Amino acid sequence: MSKLHFLTKIAGIIAVTVFLAGCSYSLSYTVKDPVLSSIEYGRSDTKPVTLTIIDKRTGSDSVFLVKVLGPGGSISDSMSLKIDNIEDPISYFAQQMERELNSRRIRIKCVVRKTSDKGLVLLINRYQIVNIRATGFSPWEACHIFSGTIIDDQKKPIKAYFYNGKTPVWSMKEVEKPCFTIPVSIIIKEVASKISRAVFKLRSSDEKIDKLTTIINSETAKEEKDPYDRPFWKVLELGYTNNPNAMESLKKYAQDSDEFFSSCSLSAMGILGAEDQIDFLMQRYSSGSFNVKYMAAKAIGDIGTQEALQVLRDMKKDEAYINEGGLKHCLDLYAP
């Protein structure tokens, strides 16, 4: 590294540090609309249906963008944070959910209403992004949280969680893609997958799994240094298939050396419902850090059995639960 490049990089870090130490600061981002997944469930005979989405958020859960900035959140109030193109997060969620479900050949119309006494209903109890940053030298961490209840013939909980972080060097704009655009899209696609399974009992074919794994294996053979250039979307889609035959491939990808790629694989395992994989997930939790640790815990939470929930409650005894927001918010979501 040249001396000039080194000094420039240090100056960038100092600039970010100064921003955190300032009395007041405003950050605004633009989230790109989610690119539709390639998932289809092989059926076009589902009857047209309306999904009524009701905002049931209350208290602190009604805040879309939560800030925990500075040591102990000490400068949170002096900074404003907004996503320019998401003024109403519930309406945005409904719009993008409809697009994603329609792309999977599910004929559905998503409407936001205050009440509903019939038909398919999704109650949203929490839809939130918790943003954490202690100092200018630490990563910007984003915990994306969804908690709701789908009501058809019966009530079923729908929860989703995704964590990612990025340490900005030159500009705070660097966190926009990894901490906002990508996770927002992941949450919408995951909730769509869980609704597809819970309500419509849909899953993709084994042939779709074969196509995805062929693409993933081909792309991972390339030397890509940027984790966001690797086929993590295709790995996540293995989970969106709702087909348990994708599990063994996901276990392989979950042991990848790239933390982000591995964490996406673990998340996908949870979407499939990894009831017989608790030991594997615990191994990844114990040996991993940050993304891997948190998404292993998330996958256990997705299992949802009493055994799995007890594992999560035991995790709350770990020191990491106190010190790491990414783990705390995951465990509090799945095992409150």
Description:
The protein has 336 residues and is α/β, with parallel strands linked by helices. It folds into two domains: 202 residues, Double Stranded RNA Binding Domain; 133 residues, Leucine-rich Repeat Variant (Alpha Horseshoe). It has twelve helices and eight strands. The strands form two sheets. Strands 2, 3, 5, 6, 7 and 8 form a six-stranded mixed sheet that branches. Strand 6 and strand 7 form a beta hairpin. Helix 4 runs antiparallel to helix 5 and helix 8 runs antiparallel to helix 9. The chain is globular, with a radius of gyration of 20 Å. The N and C termini lie far apart (48 Å). About 5% of the residues have low confidence.
Would you kindly provide a brief summary of this structure?
This protein has helices at residues 3-21, 89-103, 176-200, 206-220, 232-240, 247-253, 259-272, 278-287, 291-303, 306-315, 319-323, 325-334; strands at 25-29, 49-55, 65-69, 79-83, 108-113, 120-133, 140-151, 155-166. The protein is α/β, with parallel strands linked by helices and 336 residues long.
Run of helices and strands: HEEEEHEEEEHHHHHHHHHH
Q: What number of structural domains do the residues give? A: 2
Determine the CATH topology of the largest domain.
Double Stranded RNA Binding Domain
Approximate strand percentage: 15-25%
Distance between the termini: 48 Å
Largest β-sheet summary:
6 strands, mixed
Contiguous low-pLDDT stretches (5 residues minimum) are 6-23
The rough form would be described as globular
CATH superfamily of the largest domain: Lipoprotein like domain
Mean pLDDT: 92
Q: Cα-atom Rg, whole angstroms?
A: 20 Å
What would you call the structural class?
A: alpha/beta
CATH class of the largest domain: Alpha Beta
Number of helices: 12
Can you give the helix content as a percent range? Answer: 40-55%
Just name the CATH architecture of the largest domain: 2-Layer Sandwich
Let me know the number of strands: 8
